[in-house]
Amino acid sequence: MVGIVRTAAIIVLSASSGMRSSELMELRVGCRRPIEEPIPGLTRYRIASKIVKGQPLGGTDDEWVVIEPVHRAVELIEQLHDDPRDDVLLLSRFSFRVRYIWFRNWVNSSAGERLGLAPIPEGPVSLRMLRRTIALELAYRPGGVLAAKLQLKHIATATTEGYAARPGGAQAELLAEVNKHEADRNLQLIMAEFHNYRNGILPSGPGARNLTEFFATVDTDLNAESTAAPKVQRNDRDILNLLSKRAKVLHLGPANYCWFTDPSRALCLKLAGTPTATRPMIGMCDSARCPQATHHDVHRPVWAEHAERTKTFLGQLGKTRATERTRLQADHDRAVRVIADIDTATTTASGDLP
Fold first, then answer.
1. Is residue 296 classed as helix, strand or coil in its secondary structure?
2. Which InterPro entries does the protein's record reference (predicted)?
3. Which strands sit side by side in the sheet containing 36-39, from one edge to the other?
4. Where are the alpha helices (DSSP H) in the chain?
């Protein structure tokens, strides 16, 4: 059982950190760095190892920022270690494939069934596949290419730049896969919002009117087609065909959707002085003012947390910090206003339904 638990911890560590096999094998007892809290409510976990690939003999010391489950998995492996002295190799050499198959067979056996564990599907799993999965998850998020480069410790910048440029070979395959995931995700999101519109749950924000008018046009087109061919039953594919063009201009912000239909109207590009750019600068987005931004019910928790945190900061400011108080108060008022608009768009529209 100790071996099974240790293997489970290794799988969590490998799948969530994105570390190469050589980097995992360089982990040592005591590699967990002290937990940091740069700002209240934000906790940072780090582990130390060595980058071996492309480095001089002996590798180069480096650190990985990880999530809490990884930090706890390393702690568990240390507790299960036969010789838990500081600086002793934590894992040493091991075969991930052999350990994974052993773990999967155990989970799928009667022992795992007795514990209520969900069966693990058959199929190969390797450390390279896990790194690729993390790259895919990071690459289509705002700033994801840079985040992937830092987390995966790419030696050549071109490796990561290939995600967003015009690479060849494996990089081109990854870019195509990322783009497909992004397109599918956008279609699912706009379909969900269209169904919300039909159910009376409307968007809010500066771009809400434009989006609502677009949904109304799509709804009208569907009704016209149904009238012309009453025996033809419409399905989601017909709706997706009408929504697909708008889905292509959807970009996700941390607390809003950006419908990048007209670069000349994008507030972020105006602020950056690049009005002809082909993509929005999500990091500079001010969704409360941009005419192409919308807020939806899924964004409410983000704004609520921001309002609560800003309120806490305001309570901690001294009387002499008037400038900072004015700035934070305006930020808090904006968050409260966005929350109120989201609530109004949701509850008022829902109340109008028969």
1. coil
2. DNA_brk_join_enz, Integrase-like_cat_sf
3. 36-39, 42-51, 60-66
4. 2-17, 21-25, 68-79, 96-107, 110-114, 127-139, 144-152, 157-161, 170-198, 208-228, 236-247, 267-272, 300-316, 322-351
Burial class (CB in 10 A: 0-12, 13-18, 19+), 284: middle
pLDDT tens string, the chain, 354 residues long: the values are: 889 999 999 999 998 888 889 999 999 999 999 999 888 888 999 999 998 888 888 888 988 888 899 999 999 999 999 888 888 999 888 899 999 999 999 999 999 999 999 999 999 999 888 887 777 777 666 666 666 666 676 544 445 444 444 345 455 666 677 778 888 999 999 999 999 998 889 999 999 999 999 999 988 877 776 555 554 445 677 788 889 889 999 999 889 999 999 999 999 999 888 888 888 988 888 999 999 999 999 999 999 999 999 999 888 888 888 888 899 999 999 999 999 999 998 875 544 444
Residue 47 · residue 14 · CB < 8 Å: no
Phi then psi for residue 264, to 5 deg, are: -70, -15
Q: At 258, which amino acid appears?
A: C
Q: Which two tokens stand for residue 63?
A: 């650190």
Q: 8: which 2 tokens?
A: 């489970």
Q: How many residues appear in the chain? A: 354
Token look-up 């609520």 returns 304
Contact 349, 306 (CB under 8 A): no
10-41 core/surface letters (b: 16 or more CB in 10 A; e: else): bbbbbbbbbbbbbbbbbbbbebbbeeeeeeee
Amino acid found at 251:
H
Tokens of 197: 């519109």
